[in-house]
User: Which sequence fits this backbone?
């Protein structure tokens, strides 16, 4: 018994389509839109769609058509012939002409190929002239077909044909294509055919079926052209979706002054304003609007030129927007006064427009609040929260790195953090350019407009700190040679010196020569309204990572419900504190360390008072000292000599101490709770500072619930010992102050062992905070500062689906988090859980945290709105009580 061939071709025409609007996965966005418009009774030229499954089969079988496709395409052509009143492909007397277009399930504008006027050859062009009595139109259509087909299918550059047109216009002394007549186009057709013969050694194909096969193959092949691959990588579109092919009867916008073609949006895609927005050209075909050969007119002008067509177009766009309940991007052609719709799809829009359209459509009764929230991609909000390079400005991009922290920065180049501070002090705007940054650079990073590094990735020191500060950062600019000695930055042929102007675009990773104009973010009323709806719906809490009162203030402004991570080590790098910190490190005994720590206590207490005040009773999680001590000491000879003189010790002694602290793998070395175990006086001072600050504010009427977090715990007894010490200090301070506070002591889960033994560790903890940056490093065995050397190759070869330091590895790291939550709550049902790595601001990671039952995520202050919206999305898709 013969096996039935699966359906590969879906017909649409004469008011009925075999497909529907919800079949985007199979028919692609364009095919589904054409089918839906046909079923809605909107004028659409008839045609058929070859499914995305065929594209996938095409690649699987070595770029060959699957069995049965040829027969189904020929059957589609027969139905098309009937719909077009008997016109047939290749018929010299009554030729059927076709357009062949791509159409993936999501819009990829301009990334894949299109061919128009297919079916023209030396015989059918005569049939077209007889049918239309318009030789100029027929020869213009034929030359367009040869030009497009040769470019897309035969691989002859479009520009080669343009040169021949330019030569013809020069010969005639005219400037515009529309000034060429029928004889000009006829002569150009001959020149085009000669060019093809010369380039390929064979004539331009005259067989219409061969033309169609070549065009369908070319659309399938364009799915894997370099620009389409790059677009999918940038936008996270899977490579195995494939594209559909849409074959339609041609309608012609180039038949004279009562014909034309245009592209429009049912609302303004830049601002979201409710106005019909678009442009059109009279006597033109679709590619003319996009190519910019002639300047299009605003679509509103059509009302004067073709009032009946415009009235019908307005009626159709309103019908489509109400039907899809979203802003539509439409393409249309007018052939001798008759309107045809060639496409409708949900329109691409800026973040500002997305927010406005979503909120407006709720007020108009078109959609509900949940739908409105889902219409705005959380990552889009980045555009609204930072200054941006003016999209209208012409700029000279000289290099590209990683878009490590969004926004834009214009400033004069400086190469050292202390120079950045000195320049900023005298009122200069600076961009700090380094091979890579270290914690010692914090002062310079703080005053810089932006930061650029030639090394490091999306979670390098520069990237993490810049995001926390809300500063623009471009990291890992591989083409940049940074010479801090000679104070030069070499990028290709450009050699830039200290003081030269540079612009960074942290949203794209671009490094721009000179001063580019910037535009300020505009957080309009619709933004606040949308965020309010998100907060009403979400179940996952959103906190911020903040180390200083200014960051805490920003976090509160962006809607953070507390601080999920305060990194105390950043507080020690300030010039007035680093000396006492170094005294402590260089001390020979406990008494010496305690003496130095007593100098640091008032600073720490002051910092915590500032944070508690800003958060006004919201929870504040303070991580005790985490990095190894050598990070607080200089390593260069000149700096060692300077410090030795300042501290009153010999250079030799200082060098020996620095050497003794050096580690082969500091990430796995003497850090975190290991410091607290070996030098309990460090953690005791910090806990005292926390509780002195909390009790002082409690007396002023603040409700403070301090959360003390002990990092890098992997063994229950580590936490047991340090928890006991912390409780003793906390109780002592509260007794001294005569104030009783509720407080919590917990740990950071950043080692696989801690996740695997979470049931044991939870017995000593009031909360777990998953430090996903370090947990990712220790799970994969990747160093986040060195991973850039091979990660690009891993992504290109699809060994990894995404950078695991940007988007949580749900299969591996995610399973450890799931295990940690489940095992932790098995012995401690009241255990609070959250994450505080960079993943807290990544929408896909936020959704995972919601699904595994975490109580909150914590991210940099400027990503808090993104996390709030992502948490609302997660609740809508995966409701939890």
Assistant:
């Amino acid at each position: 018994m013969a096996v039935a061939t699966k359906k590969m071709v879906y017909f649409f025409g004469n008011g009925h389509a075999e497909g529907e609007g919800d079949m985007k996965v199979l028919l692609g966005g364009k095919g589904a839109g054409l089918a839906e418009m046909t079923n809605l009774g909107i004028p659409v030229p008839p045609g058929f769609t070859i499914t995305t499954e065929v594209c996938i089969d095409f690649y699987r079988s070595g770029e060959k058509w699957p069995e049965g496709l040829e027969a189904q395409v020929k059957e589609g052509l027969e139905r098309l012939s009937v719909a077009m009143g008997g016109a047939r492909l290749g018929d010299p007397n009554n030729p059927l002409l076709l357009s062949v277009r791509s159409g993936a399930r999501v819009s990829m504008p301009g990334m894949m190929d299109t061919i128009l006027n297919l079916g023209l050859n030396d015989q059918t062009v005569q049939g077209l002239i007889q049918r239309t009595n318009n030789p100029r139109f027929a020869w213009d259509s034929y030359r367009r077909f040869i030009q497009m087909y040769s470019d897309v299918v035969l691989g002859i550059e479009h520009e080669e044909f343009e040169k021949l047109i330019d030569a013809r216009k020069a010969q005639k002394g005219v400037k515009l294509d529309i000034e060429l007549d029928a004889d000009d186009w006829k002569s150009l057709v001959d020149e085009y055919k000669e060019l093809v013969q010369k380039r390929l050694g064979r004539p331009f194909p005259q067989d219409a079926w061969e033309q169609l096969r070549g065009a369908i193959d070319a659309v399938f092949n364009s799915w894997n052209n370099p620009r389409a691959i790059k677009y999918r990588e940038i936008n996270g579109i899977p490579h195995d979706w494939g594209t559909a092919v849409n074959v339609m009867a041609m309608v012609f916008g180039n038949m004279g002054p009562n014909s034309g073609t245009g592209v429009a949006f049912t609302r303004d895609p830049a601002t979201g304003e409710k106005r019909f927005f678009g442009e059109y050209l009279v006597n033109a075909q679709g590619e003319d609007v996009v190519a910019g050969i002639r300047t299009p007119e605003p679509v509103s002008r059509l009302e004067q030129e073709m009032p009946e067509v415009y009235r019908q177009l307005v009626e159709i766009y309103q019908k489509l927007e109400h039907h899809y309940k979203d802003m539509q991007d439409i393409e249309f052609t007018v052939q001798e006064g008759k309107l045809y719709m060639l496409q409708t799809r949900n329109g691409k829009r800026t973040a500002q427009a997305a927010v406005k359209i979503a909120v407006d459509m709720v007020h108009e009764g078109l959609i509900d609040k949940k739908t409105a929230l889902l219409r705005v991609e959380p990552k889009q909000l980045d555009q609204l929260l930072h200054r941006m390079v003016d999209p209208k400005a012409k700029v000279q991009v000289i290099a590209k790195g990683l878009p490590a922290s969004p926004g834009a920065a214009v400033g004069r180049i400086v190469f050292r953090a202390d120079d950045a501070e000195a320049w900023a002090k005298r009122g200069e705007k600076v961009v700090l350019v380094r091979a890579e940054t270290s914690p010692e650079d914090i002062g310079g990073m703080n005053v810089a407009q932006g930061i650029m590094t030639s090394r490091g990735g999306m979670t390098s020191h520069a990237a993490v700190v810049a995001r926390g500060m809300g500063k623009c950062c471009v990291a890992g600019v591989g083409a940049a040679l940074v010479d801090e000695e000679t104070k030069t930055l070499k990028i290709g042929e450009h050699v830039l010196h200290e003081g030269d102007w540079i612009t960074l675009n942290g949203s794209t990773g671009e490094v721009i020569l000179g001063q580019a104009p910037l535009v300020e973010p505009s957080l309009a009323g619709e933004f606040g309204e949308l965020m309010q709806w998100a907060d009403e719906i979400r179940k996952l809490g959103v906190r911020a990572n903040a180390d200083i009162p200014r960051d805490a203030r920003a976090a509160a402004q962006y809607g953070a419900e507390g601080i999920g991570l305060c990194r105390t080590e950043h507080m020690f790098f300030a010039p007035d504190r680093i000396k006492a910190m170094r005294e402590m490190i260089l001390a020979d005994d406990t008494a010496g360390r305690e003496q130095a720590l007593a100098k640091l206590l008032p600073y720490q207490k002051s910092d915590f008072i500032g944070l508690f005040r800003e958060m006004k009773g919201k929870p504040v999680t303070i991580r005790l000292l985490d990095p190894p001590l050598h990070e607080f000491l200089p390593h260069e000879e000149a700096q060692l000599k300077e410090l030795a003189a300042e501290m009153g010790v010999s250079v030799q002694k200082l060098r020996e101490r620095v050497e003794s602290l050096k580690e082969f793998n500091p990430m796995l070395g003497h850090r975190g709770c290991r410091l607290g175990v070996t030098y309990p006086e460090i953690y005791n001072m910090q806990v005292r500072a926390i509780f002195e600050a909390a009790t002082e504010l409690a007396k002023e009427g603040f409700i403070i619930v301090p959360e003390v977090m002990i990092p890098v715990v992997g063994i229950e007894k580590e936490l047991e010992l340090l928890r006991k010490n912390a409780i003793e200090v906390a109780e002592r301070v509260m007794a001294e102050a005569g104030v009783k506070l509720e407080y919590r002591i917990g740990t950071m889960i950043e080692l696989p062992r801690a996740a695997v033994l979470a049931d044991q560790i939870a017995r000593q903890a009031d909360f777990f905070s998953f430090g996903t940056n370090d947990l990712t490093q220790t799970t994969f065995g990747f160093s986040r500062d060195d991973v850039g050397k091979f990660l690009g190759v891993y992504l290109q070869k699809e060994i990894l689906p995404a950078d695991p330091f940007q988007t949580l590895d749900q299969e591996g790291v995610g399973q450890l988090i799931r295990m940690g939550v489940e095992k932790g709550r098995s012995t401690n049902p009241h255990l609070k859980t959250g994450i505080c790595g960079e993943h807290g601001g990544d929408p896909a990671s936020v959704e995972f945290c919601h699904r595994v039952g975490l109580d909150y995520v914590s991210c940099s202050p400027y990503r808090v709105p993104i996390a709030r919206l992502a948490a609302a999305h997660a609740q809508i898709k995966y409701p939890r009580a």
In short: Residues 762 and 840 are 22 Å apart (CA to CA). The longest helix spans residues 590-615. The mean pLDDT is 92. The two ends are 53 Å apart (CA to CA).
